[in-house]
Design a protein that fits this description.
alpha/beta, 18% strand, four-stranded parallel β-sheet, five-stranded parallel β-sheet, 12 strands, single chain
């Protein structure tokens, strides 16, 4: 194919995209732990939902496990950014394992809210996705049954509360902003006295990335989200793009997953990345398009993020 016959494609790069402060902190925690204590450092669950990141840490000596019974006594173990139930640190102490908690501070904020509501004698409703590690960790901060999970407006419409004057809600940090707003509206209509988070639980990074997708979705023939298939915030970006008017939106972990027949020859493509996807994977996708198309890339202006979370004190020296 001659250069003149190469199809043209415009790529709109959403901003912000990719790593958030909580993900950067979690990765740094594993790296610093390896530097300070040496390999192996064990990590309970994926530190963040991205295989590229996990495999990179494995090459440095991190060992990823599902539960602490896979970790030797007196070993160093890191808890993932999604947070863990309260029994997990206690279990580590019983096993004489030294642990470092990489829970995102914005997830920890939700944990604190839940504990405060419980102390105040409120029934607690959590909006989130059943089985997601963050939801498991948050619900595990309190005794079984203290937090009741709902996932949609139908459940919000039917959940029964003992005392409508003594109820509060919390949310997973990586939900669809619009879907959650509808669920919250339903809860507030049913329970006018419901206690809301003092500051919204959906994190700044989730909110900003969804807003950036909304800005470009209607102008794109296809929107690609670079992210893992088990990443909640990445999957929500696909949904947001479709809802905002993009006719097609696909989630890909990296360039090798691109299905060129499925992609076809769109005139304008939007590209973004979930909060746990590194920028190198976005560049990998762009390079793949450069090999097949005459590509013009446009960086779209967006919110500037300058959030930084401190590392745990034990790793600062």
């Amino acid at each position: 194919m001659t250069a003149a016959a190469t199809p043209e494609v415009q790529i709109m790069l959403a901003n912000p995209r990719g790593f958030c402060a909580g993900v950067e902190r979690a990765i740094q925690i594993v790296e610093r732990a390896l530097d300070k204590y040496g390999a192996p450092v064990y990590v309970r669950h994926e530190i963040v939902h991205n295989r590229f990141v996990v495999e990179g840490l494995e090459k440095r000596g991190a060992v990823f496990v599902e539960e602490l019974d896979e970790v030797p006594a007196e070993a160093v173990v890191v808890f993932s950014a999604h947070g863990v139930p309260k029994w997990v640190p206690q279990d580590a102490e019983n096993r004489k394992q030294f642990y470092v908690d990489a829970t995102c501070p914005l997830v920890s904020k939700v944990h604190v809210e839940a504990e405060r509501h419980f102390r105040d004698g409120l029934e607690i409703i959590m909006i989130g996705h059943e089985g997601h590690p963050e939801v498991v960790g948050t619900m595990g901060q309190l005794p079984d049954g203290a937090i009741r999970l709902i996932e949609n407006t139908d459940q919000a419409s039917t959940i029964e509360i003992d005392d409508p004057a003594k109820v509060a809600f919390i949310t997973q940090t990586t939900l669809s902003v619009d879907d959650t707003a509808e669920i919250v509206q339903t809860l507030k209509q049913r329970f006018p006295d419901i206690h809301s988070p003092r500051k919204e639980d959906i994190c700044y990074a989730t909110t900003n990335r969804q807003a950036a997708v909304k800005e470009i979705a209607a102008n794109c023939d296809l929107l690609l989200v670079v992210g893992a298939h088990n990443s909640s915030n990445s999957k929500r970006l696909v949904e947001v793009a479709l809802r905002a008017g993009c006719p097609r939106a696909l989630l890909v972990q990296r360039a090798s997953e691109l299905d060129w027949e499925q992609i076809g020859q769109p005139g304008t493509i939007g590209v973004t990345a979930g909060a746990s996807a590194p920028e190198v994977l976005v560049q990998e996708v762009l390079d793949a398009f450069h090999e097949r198309f005459d590509v013009k890339v446009r960086e779209v202006d967006g919110v500037s993020e300058d959030v930084i979370f401190k590392l745990p004190r034990v790793l600062r020296t």
